[in-house]
Amino acid sequence: MKYLPLLNGVKPLPPVSWNHWFLFDNRISESILKAQADGAAAAGVEYFCIDSGWYDGGFWRGTGNWTIDKNKFPQGLGPIDDYVTRAVQWLCICCAPQDVGYHRGCGSARDRLHDT
Predict the structure, then answer these.
(1) 86: part of which helix (H) or strand (E)?
(2) Rounded to an integer, what distance in angstroms lies between the CA atom of residue 51 and that of residue 72?
(3) Could you give the CA distance from residue 71 to residue 93 in angstroms, rounded to a whole number?
């Protein structure tokens, strides 16, 4: 890591992140993510990443669709954001902007921005 500048004379460590996809893929819910956030916080995770599967259609069929899956998240993603950012430093959400409108019926990015 020659390209990484020293921070106060010390090489900084890469951030620690957690991503739900590798364990749960499309099978996520508010309760699952809250339980995982507790474990992630206890492990010192800095970035809690919600990958594909939070939107209608899940991965792959719904990729690029920024409409929240209300069956999984009836109150939207706000409660998850509040919970995770209290437990872990940062919440990351996969939104695949390159795929917006790729699947029929997904609409445009402008139509979906208010949903996230």
Answers:
(1) helix 78-87
(2) 14
(3) 18
Q: Which residues contact 107 (CB under 8 A, 6 or more apart)?
A: 65, 100, 101
CA gap 69, 76 in Å, rounded: 8
What DSSP designation does 105 have? T
List, in sequence order, every residue forming a beta bridge with 50; answer none if it has no partner: 93
For the full predicted model, state whether its pTM sits above 0.70: yes
Locate the domains of the chain by residue range: 28-115
CA 94 – CA 20 distance, rounded (Å): 11
- The strand ranges marked E within 11-94 are 17-19, 47-50, 90-93
Contact 66, 100 (CB under 8 A): yes
Q: What integer pLDDT is reported at residue 103 of this predicted model?
A: 56
Pick the more confident residue, 64 or 108.
64
